Task: structure prediction
Amino acid sequence: MFAELQLDKQLLRALEKLGLETPTEVQSQTIPLALAGSDLLVNAHTGSGKTAAFLLPSLHKLLTEPSKLHGTRLLVLSPTRELARQLFKNCKDLIQFCPLQVGLMMGGDEFKYQRAMLRKDPEILIATPGRLLEHIKHEHAELSNLEVLVLDEGDRMLDMGLSDDVLEIVRACKPERQTMLFSATLAHTGVRKIAQQILRAPKSLTLSTAQDQHSNIRQQVILTDDAAHKDRVLTWLLSNEKYEKALIFTNTRDYTNKLGGFLRYHNIEAGVLHGEMEQDARNQIMTQLRYGKIKVLVATDVAARGLDVKGIDLVINVDMARSGDDYIHRVGRTGRAGASGTAITFISAPDWNLMSTVEHYLQIRFEKRAIKGLEAAFKGPKKIKSSGKAAGSKVNKEKRKARKEAAEMPDEAPKTKQRLRDKKNIGKRRAPSKEGSTTPEKTNNKSKSAAPKTPAKPTWGEPSAWQKDGWAPMKKKKKTEE
Ligand code: AMP
Result:
């Protein structure tokens, strides 16, 4: 029970109102360490409740150790605007009975309003790095009295090239502070590097592995050919699958726009979300999805992290994610907080090896699915006949060709056996040898199999992120799911 964690009464009251009674694993492990003041390096999978894991102890500190100093006391950095917005909403929910203020600062919003917000001196600031840095440079933001710094989705932040910004912000923060770094993976070299630079004697918590994740999500693949075939399969799925809300992922902004238009043309009310859109348009689309005005959202990976929209029970990767990390984050948009969901990934020929890599890493086998009447011509990589040791070797192919050519020679031509080495040596001076014999050649008989190579184990981790329209208690899950 949360009450056993000795949290401030105002926070316990908010938790009760939000219907959150029992801490999740990440919460029960992180909160006592954070309350003791340790720096933390934590990985926990998406939907595990990690947001409250860092917010609750930080807010408790602000409440129980009041300060009269000016400036931000708790700063939470988020890689994306959508996640920042959710963190802001979750924070507001948790501080609803507390005398604390929270401000939101991210790119795309009016600079002057953010400046006005900073003048009000909120104790808590949720920000994306780029915009915060601008305010630091203009001396609007005051971090010299900062007590707690949280980096959410640390690996994503680094993958987005934000490490310089983050380090510059950290330099503006009070050195004697508590720092918590949450990351989908701790194996990420960048995360380990930045952790060394900004954490002091951190306690490291690994709460789940990629293999533990998403046991409540049915993960299927459908073989596909070209874009037109993908379009047909997608329209079929959206018209025949049972779902409340569906999230469709593509790899490019262009394709996202095209697909959104295509679906609307086929009377499927679909919204589009990608990083090139104005912030207002992005917010509008998210609101429409949250409130069920649209059931389908086509998005790039900008929507893969952090979003916790209630009712997303279908994720379709029209393009296979570019990396294992991206795959798991996309899939994690469904099956949130113990609910179940389905993730369907389209696999065309170039995606096969990546699919095997993902299966290998997650130690699962994707459920292979085909839609009657829409089966792909692509059936997976061609099987190599294993009869001859060197069945696929170049030398043997040439030998077979030579044999075939010999067999096709007109009948009147004398059927002399033309050896490969003879063919290869045409025009070359013959080494002195016995008449009729040729210099023995060494051939490389190693077979080059066309089967997918055993994939290198990717650097994976698990995701993190969150929120929907507010807090919703997780359904009770089996232990393996956590
Ligand atoms: P997060 O991993 O922080 O994105 O949280 C995922 C979901 O879990 C959110 O929808 C939260 O409302 C929910 N949640 C967080 N903590 C708890 C808890 N202790 N009990 C039940 N649900 C929770």
Q: What stands out?
A: The chain has two domains: 2-208, 212-369. The chain is about 35% helix and 15% strand.
